[in-house]
Automatic annotation (TrEMBL):
Coiled coil: none
Protein name in the entry: Carbohydrate kinase PfkB domain-containing protein
Residues included from the entire protein: 1 to 326 of 783
C-alpha cells in the first residue's frame, strides 16, 4: 500500500527575501502609502525601439507620470532579479545596444530568465503578470501584441491577449499596431472577456499610428473620471476583469500616420517573402524595426508621441482610480 503524502504548496520564488525581487524605494513608498502608481513595460526598451530613443522615451514617460504625482514602476529582469522601479543607470544599462543576449520576456519566459540569471525586457504579458503580483492595477504601454495577419495558418497570437483575459491589470494603450490583424485581435479580446473602451469623443478602435483602424470598440469613455470608474468596476466584479483603454494618437499626426501605414504594408509583404513570419517571438521586433527603416524615422517619432500621450492619459486615470481604491 502506498503511503499518502500531505499536499504541500510550493513556496513562492519571487520574493524580496530571497533576492529575486527588488522594489525601488520610490515604488516601495508608493505601494505602502497606497499612492497612485502605474506599471511600465520594458520590451519596448530592449526590443521595440532603437537606441538612444528607447532610453529618452523611457525617461520621458517616467517624468510625465512623476510630474502628475504618479509613481512610475518600470518592470524588467536584470541578471535573474525582477526589478520593479528602475534607476536611470539601470534604464541606461537595459537600453544599451551593446548589451547582448537580452531576452524578450513574455509569461512563458519568466521562470527561465529568473532561474538562468538572465537579463530581459518584459512584454505586456510579462509585465502584467508581475504588476498583478504586487497589486498594481494600472499599466501604460504603446501598443499591445495581437493576432498576426495570416494567423489562421501560423497560429501567431500574442500571449498579451490571453494575459488580458486572465490577469486583472487595466491597460492603457494606443490600440494595436496595423502590422496585426485588427478585426481578429478584437475578436480574440471579446472571446477573452476583455472590456475594450476607446478614449475620447469617438468609439473607433485606434491602430497605433492612426487614430482609427476602421473598426469600432464596444465601449467609449471620454474623461479620466469615467475611465477610472469603468476600470474600478471591472476590477471589483466577483471575478475581476481587464479594461483595455484604447487612446487614439492625437489628430495632429493623422497625415504622418497615413504615410507610416504604407511602410507597414511593405514591411508585412517583405516578412512573408523572407519567411520572417514563421520566426515566433522575433516577428514583432523585426516588423517594428523594418517599419522604422522604411518610414525614415517617421514611425519612431509618432511612436514616441503616442506613448507620451498614453502616459499623460494614464496619469490622469491613475489619480482618479486612486481615489476609488481608498
Ligand atoms: N507593439 C509595439 N511596440 C512594442 C511591442 C508591441 O508597438 O514594443 C512589444 C510589447 O512589449 C508587446 C510585445 O507586449 O511586443 C508583443 O510581442 P509578441 O507579438 O511577440 O507577443
Ligand atoms: Mn507571436
Amino acid at each position: 500500500m502506498g503511503q499518502s503524502v500531505p499536499f504541500r504548496p510550493p513556496k513562492a520564488t519571487l520574493t524580496a527575501q530571497n533576492g529575486r525581487l527588488v522594489l525601488s524605494e520610490e515604488v516601495q513608498h508608493a505601494l505602502s502609502t497606497h499612492s497612485p502608481i502605474v506599471a511600465l513595460e520594458s520590451t519596448i526598451i530592449t526590443h521595440g525601439m532603437p537606441h538612444p530613443t528607447n532610453l529618452s522615451t523611457a525617461l520621458s514617460v517616467e517624468s510625465i507620470l512623476r510630474s502628475e504625482g504618479v509613481t512610475p514602476a518600470t518592470i524588467a529582469i536584470l541578471q535573474g532579479v525582477v526589478h520593479v522601479g528602475l534607476t536611470s543607470s539601470q534604464l541606461e544599462q537595459l537600453s544599451d545596444p551593446e548589451l547582448t543576449g537580452t531576452v524578450k520576456v513574455s509569461r512563458r519566459d519568466l521562470g527561465a530568465v529568473i532561474s538562468m540569471g538572465l537579463t530581459g525586457g518584459t512584454t505586456v504579458a510579462g509585465t502584467m503578470f508581475i504588476a498583478r503580483s504586487l497589486g498594481i492595477g494600472l499599466f501604460v504601454t504603446g501598443g499591445i501584441g495581437g493576432v498576426h495577419r495570416g494567423a489562421e495558418k501560423s497560429m501567431d497570437i500574442s500571449a498579451d491577449l490571453m494575459e488580458l483575459g486572465r490577469t486583472p491589470v487595466a491597460v492603457v494603450c494606443a490600440g494595436a499596431k496595423s502590422i496585426l490583424d485588427i478585426p481578429k485581435t478584437l475578436e480574440v479580446l471579446e472571446t477573452q472577456g476583455v472590456c475594450v473602451a476607446s478614449y475620447g469623443d469617438k468609439n473607433d478602435f485606434p491602430a497605433f499610428y492612426s487614430p482609427t483602424s476602421g473598426y469600432k470598440s464596444p465601449w467609449q469613455i471620454s474623461d479620466p473620471t469615467s475611465a477610472a470608474s469603468l476600470i474600478h468596476t471591472n476590477l471589483t466584479l466577483p471575478e475581476p476583469l481587464v479594461t483595455l483603454l484604447a487612446v487614439p494618437i492625437p489628430s495632429t499626426y493623422t497625415v504622418e500616420g497615413q504615410e507610416v501605414q504604407e511602410s507597414v504594408e511593405i514591411a508585412i509583404r517583405e516578412s512573408v517573402e523572407q519567411g520572417i513570419d514563421k520566426r515566433g517571438k522575433e516577428v514583432t521586433p523585426w516588423l517594428l524595426k523594418r517599419v522604422g527603416e522604411l518610414s525614415g524615422g517617421k514611425a519612431l517619432r509618432l511612436n514616441v508621441k503616442l506613448i507620451e500621450n498614453n502616459a499623460a492619459v494614464g496619469a490622469a486615470v491613475a489619480l482618479e482610480l486612486n481615489k476609488l481604491e481608498k
